[in-house]
Design a protein that fits this description.
By secondary structure, the protein is an alpha+beta fold. It is about 10% helix and about 25% strand. The protein has a two-stranded antiparallel ribbon with strand order 1-2.
């Protein structure tokens, strides 16, 4: 996280550069069980209903039966 405040001379605006300012959002979703974390998925961007429905209704190909 970059600092968003700073000091400057009285009456002057503070202008500064923030390195690595390519802000993007990643969403991590997974199935939490009592003994492990299953089916992790990382999405570039925010979660929406369509992506959530896709995750919930995805065929359980890699989730072992308990």
């Amino acid at each position: 996280m970059a600092k968003t405040t700073g000091w400057s001379l009285s009456g002057q605006r503070l202008i500064d550069h923030t390195p690595f300012g390519h802000w993007s959002t990643q969403t991590f979703i997974a199935a939490l069980r009592h003994d492990r974390l299953d089916a992790p998925w990382v999405i570039d961007g925010a979660m929406n209903r369509d992506l959530f429905d896709l995750y919930v209704n995805w065929p359980p190909l890699c989730i072992p039966a308990t």
